[in-house]
Amino acid sequence: MPGLIASLRVAHYFEDSPQAASRPGAVTLVLPDLHLKLETDRGVFSPERIDLGTRVLLESVPPPPAEGDLLDLGCGYGPIALTMATRAPAATVWAVDVNRRSLELCARNATAARLDKVRSMHVDEVPQDVRFAAIWSNPAIRIGKPALHAMLTRWLSRLVPGGSAYLVVQKHLGADSLQRWLTSEGFPASRHSSRSSYRILKVSAASGGSEG
Ligand SMILES: C[S@@+](CC[C@H](N)C(=O)[O-])C[C@H]1O[C@@H](n2cnc3c(N)ncnc32)[C@H](O)[C@@H]1O
User: Fold this and answer.
1) Number of domains into which the chain is organized
2) Where is the Methyltransferase small domain (predicted)?
3) Residue 32 Cα to ligand 1 middle (Å)
């Protein structure tokens, strides 16, 4: 039976080191202000096309702060991080993930786009003292509620006072309950906009300031 169980093992895009054999591909990210070809691969999130939620986020958010440190939480192959870096060329964009294949792709895509202020790295490698002026994310809802909550608390606590996060979440994957939970945890969350089946949540830094 162990062989059968092993063969039924489901691969997840949020694995640290994807087991799926590599099959390089490419997608095009076209927005009113940019046009980027991005390398993708199996074992990462949405390798065949830019995810619709990601697109809705990038078409809805206000421009990022022009300077400082910005965060793409769960960068995948980098569509959000590279858009932030294009819109805020003087800022440093931290593109973090747990999936090593995604991180390599994101780094390569940033280099190809000549966006040399993108720092693509594992979540545990970001220096502890960095604080973010903005966070944009298509968060990994499918990791489950406890892990999602821990991930969001970890990074939202590192917003600078007055900083904001924009999160895209599908309605049927719990956008409204996530909004309520964030607010109850001291991160005031509101609905910035809504399109198709997606909500864009705006989350403000906790009033006590960022974690020291
Ligand atoms: C919904 S995908 C979005 C990917 C990319 N930003 C995009 O828009 O195409 C979520 C990403 O979060 C990553 N992820 C999963 N668990 C994470 C964690 N604990 N911390 C940071 N990223 C995580 C996944 O590996 C995945 O790349």
Assistant:
1) 1
2) 36-178
3) 24
